[in-house]
Each structure stands twice: as C-alpha cells, then as structure tokens.
Amino acid sequence: MTKAVVRAAGLLEVSQIRIAEILGVSSATASRMASGSYQLAEDSKQWELAALFVRLFRSLDAIVGSSDSVAKQWLWSENKALGGIPGELIRTTEGLVRAVHYLDAARGRL
C-alpha cells in the first residue's frame, strides 16, 4: 500500500507534505515512505486513508485513462460539485471520502 500511495502521489504531483496531511502522519514519516524506509501498518487508520487515496487515483485513472496531465488538472482545478479544489479537499478525511464517492459515481455513468 505504501508503494502505491507514493506512486500515485508522484503521478498526481501531490507533495509529501500533502500526503502527510491526507494520511495523518508527520512529514518525516511521509519522507521515509517515499524513500522506502517506512511501511504503513495494515491494521492502521493510515492504511485505510492510504487505501482511499489509491482508490481516488484508480478511479481518476479509469475515467481519464493514462493521461496524467488531465488527472492532475482535475485534481488541482475548482470543482463546483465538490465545492472546492479536490487536491485541497482531500487533506481531510471528509474531503477525501467525498472526492472518492464523486469519482465512483462518475465512473458508474461511463
């Protein structure tokens, strides 16, 4: 899961600081995750949040295909349906869950 989060964050250009906020870990822990010297514990709240972040990435990837630029544009642009910029909203658990549900609903329409 840790590798998946780091990879998704890299493709979406989500900073280590933002990943730390999303997962509720320190920025030092996020840095250790990126370097491969720290793994999320499978039974932790951080694992659950990481799974949601990866789900967001996979849903977005399914909608826009392998176009990382379109995915990044969606993540960092105002979204009226979500009431903000998804990349900002996902810093909170509520925002992350709302963004995932939004993308899941959009995927369902395809």
From TrEMBL:
MF terms per GO, please? Answer: DNA binding
> Can you tell which superkingdom this protein's organism belongs to?
Bacteria
Ranges where the Antitoxin Xre/MbcA/ParS-like toxin-binding domain occurs:
59-108
Q: Which residues form the Antitoxin Xre-like helix-turn-helix domain?
A: 2-55
Q: Which residues form a coiled coil?
A: none
Q: Which Pfam families match?
A: Xre-like-HTH, Xre_MbcA_ParS_C
The protein in question is named: DUF2384 domain-containing protein
Organism, as annotated: Pseudolysobacter antarcticus
